[in-house]
Amino acid sequence: MKNSTLNNSAILFFTVLMVAVIFCAVTSRNYQISNRATAGKVMSDAFVSYESLYYDYLQNIDHGTLLVDLRQPAYYDVSHLEGAHNIPFDELLKRNHQRKLKKYDHILLYADQEQLSVAAQMVLLGTGIENVRVIPGTFASIMQYVVETFDPSKAFYGEDKARWDHQRFMPIGSGETKAQPERSPSREIRETGAVIGGC
Amino acid sequence: MSTIRNNYMNPYLAGFLLGMVLLASYMIAGRGLGASGAARSVVVTTVASAAPEYAEQSPFYAEYFAGVNPMGSWLVFLVIGVILGAFLSGAMANRMRFSVDRGPNIRVRTRMFFALGGGLLFGLGAQFGRGCTSGSALSGMAVLSTGGILTMMAIFGTGYLIAYFFRKLWT
Amino acid sequence: MAPLIPQGIINPELTLFFALLLGIGFGYVLEQAGFSSAKKLAGVFYGYDFVVLRVFFTAGITAMTGILFFSYLGWLDMNFVFVNPTFLYSAILGGVIMGFGFIMGGYCPGTGIVAAVTGKTDAMVFVIGMFIGIFVFGHFYQSFESIYTGHFLGNIFVYDSLGMSRAWFALLLAVVAIMAFTITQMIEDRINKVSPEQIKTRPSYMLPSFLLVIALVVFLFLPEERRSNMREARPSELLAQVHDNEAYISTHRVILEIKNGRDELILIDTREQSEFERFTLPGAINIRADEILQRHWRPLFNQDHRQKVFFGNGNSSAMQAWFTAARAGYDNVYILNGGLNRMFSELFVDAEMPDTTAYNLQDRSNARFLYEARQFFLEGGLVDEQADRRQRIKAPEESEIIPVIGGC
Question: Cα-flanking dihedrals φ and ψ of residue C293, to 5°?
Answer without folding.
Answer: -80, 0
